Amino acid sequence: MSGRIRPGTVHCRLDELLAERGMTLTDLSKRVGLSYANLSVLKNDHGRAIRFSTLASICAALDCEVGDLLEVRDD
């Protein structure tokens, strides 16, 4: 064993947060000024990177913290 830490995967909880708030992806898209397609990529865990400003906008629109939106899961 090499002793290396095995990273988990980052899961975006956007779908769950939208459901809890009774919002749609279209609603969020209009509020934060991002395309539906880009938000869909995040929602479906296909995003590879996200700008801090985008993250802050999403969290402000959903009234949540970054840790509410993103979580690390063991593989």
UniProtKB/TrEMBL annotation:
Name of protein: Transcriptional regulator
Entry-linked InterPro entries: Cro/C1-type_HTH, Lambda_DNA-bd_dom_sf
Superkingdom to which the source organism belongs: Bacteria
GO molecular function (one): DNA binding
CDD domains: HTH_XRE
TM annotation in the entry: none
Source species of the chain: Acidipropionibacterium jensenii
Domain HTH cro/C1-type residues, every copy: 14-69
Alphabetized SUPFAM superfamilies for the sequence: lambda repressor-like DNA-binding domains
